[in-house]
Amino acid sequence: xxxxxxxxxxxxxxxxxxxxxxxxxxxxxxxxxxxxxxxxxxxxxxxxxxxxxxxxxxxxxxxxxxxxxxxxxxxxxxxxxxxxxxxxxxxxxxxxxxxxxxxxxxxxxxxxxxxxxxxxxxxxxxxxxxxxxxxxxxxxxxxxxxxxxxxxxxxxxxxxxxxxxxxxxxxxxxxxxxxx
Amino acid sequence: xxxxxxxxxxxxxxxxxxxxxxxxxxxxxxxxxxxxxxxxxxxxxxxxxxxxxxxxxxxxxxxxxxxxxxxxxxxxxxxxxxxxxxxxxxxxxxxxxxxxxxxxxxxxxxxxxxxxxxxxxxxxxxxxxxxxxxxxxxxxxxxxxxxxxxxxxxxxxxxxxxxxxxxxxxxxxxxxxxxx
Lengths: 180, 180
Description:
Chains A, B: GO terms for molecular function: DNA-binding transcription factor activity; transcription cis-regulatory region binding. Chains A, B: It holds the Pfam family TetR_C_11. Chains A, B: InterPro entries: Homeodomain-like_sf, HTH-type_TetR-like_transc_reg, HTH_TetR, Tet_transcr_reg_TetR-rel_C_sf, TetR_C. Chains A, B: This is Putative HTH-type transcriptional regulator YdeS. Chains A, B: It comes from Luteimicrobium xylanilyticum. 2 copies of one chain form a homodimer. The first copy, chain A, is mostly helical. The first copy, chain A, has a domain at about 50-175: Tetracycline Repressor, domain 2 (Orthogonal Bundle). Chain A has helices at about 1-10, 20-25, 30-35, 40-50, 65-80, 80-95, 100-125, 135-155, 160-170. Chain A is elongated and about 60 Å long.
């Protein structure tokens, strides 16, 4: 059923109705109304299911390696047509409808931002990130360029750009070296 | 006429037609067809006219001051409802229609990116920016967070966040200090 919703979003954008999803997936509308506030929230769940942009935080690695894994995952999800296209359609909805923006923020952006913020907070605890760094701005700097490239400039979205982003942003977030 | 187009975009989004703009502005459709490829390109020109996000590059200032002026200008244009709302509607169109994305890129993003790239290139010539820096990625890092905040997270978009962005990105772009 989530796959049906994802397929519909890829074909027709986000203006898909509960009626249509129910018909195509062969389930009752009542089931859909019970579980999801809106067709857009259902589509987000379908994307979450398919995108496998993990929001899990791996322990026991250095901060830079953990962030890198997260960003490479994001670049792949955004550039892969199967996940990137419906995500872009949802983002377009988020730009024009406040309820879609809330759903997109709560179900897609916020969990990924929180995972990155957790990595940075644990980096602070491990002495790898300065305690006075503004985590929200660092998260913007790491992720916003990926969305901007995928959605607007279509510039390359590969491991090389991830490494360039990390190399430009992370030095300012690390504590001063204790000396050689 | 550009003001009429901007007003229509703010009211009705980007799916405005040449017919409607011509009727409201009291000009002939032929005039519009002669000057603009599509209503969306006309709307972009209307925004450019109204937004006053300068793409001029001021000379004789340090790189950081020139970039800061550019970013503060951008934050204002994106958060001001009069300019931010039609721009957001156009971006939503860019996410779903390739012709709108091209118009948005060519008429809005590219000139602003080019202005920032010029500032960075001149910074290289003045010894204030490392010659090996990837200018396109730096431009993404400086500007993408502004769009991301204005369009999706609605986090504050003020001079403080501009200064935090500059403080996190620019140190990695400056040449090693020559000593005290």
